[in-house]
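Reviewers of the previous submission asked for a worked example of the structure-prediction workflow described in the proposal, so we include one complete record here. The input consisted solely of the amino acid sequence. No template or homolog information was supplied to the procedure at any stage.
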Amino acid sequence: MVGRIITTLNCIAEGADWLARHEPAFGRALAVCGPLPLRRQPDGFAALLSAIVGQQVSVASASAIWARLEAAGLTDQAAMAAAPDEALRAVGLSRQKARYGRALAQSDIDFDALRGQPDAVVVSTLVAVPGIGLWTAEIYAMFALGRADVFAPGDLALQEATRGLFSLSERPNERALRALAADWSPWRSVAACILWAYYKTMKSREGIR
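From that input alone, the workflow returned the following structure tokens.
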């Protein structure tokens, strides 16, 4: 069963209001951060390929590589599936990312059907592809599919923002944060958006350890 889908800023506002009433700390964060952006993006092959391209490189480097992929027509799934290593290396992909991109392109993921699958099935389907980890799968579910109740507890910014907002003695690890976030259901994706926004204020105010 697919739960709530975030489609508009009104959905974000509804979730933020629920969270602020349910947990006062989110109300304090929202007072500092202001209204949250929608952050939706198109789903499908290109969204996941972009996530692979962006792994462990700067935003500027990822943007430059992506521009070269687009210019070469390699953001198309069929083209990527058939591309030789030389073509992928020529646009800036490492040997490992070339392998991951080709594996994604050659996978049998039905992206249209994925829209109707439960969150757990979406995540398990995606992580079965080499190069797509749990964080990438959860982010895809949140922002490409608009799932309202997905969280990415492995995200270091979410961990650090939680430490700061809830005055924890140390940054929670992935397991601890996943357990804590269970109380923010059915709006865990919006909770993540609040925490990311709060993280930005923390960076400017105190720096990040």
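The chain has a mean pLDDT of 94. We consider this example representative of the routine output the project will generate in years two and three.
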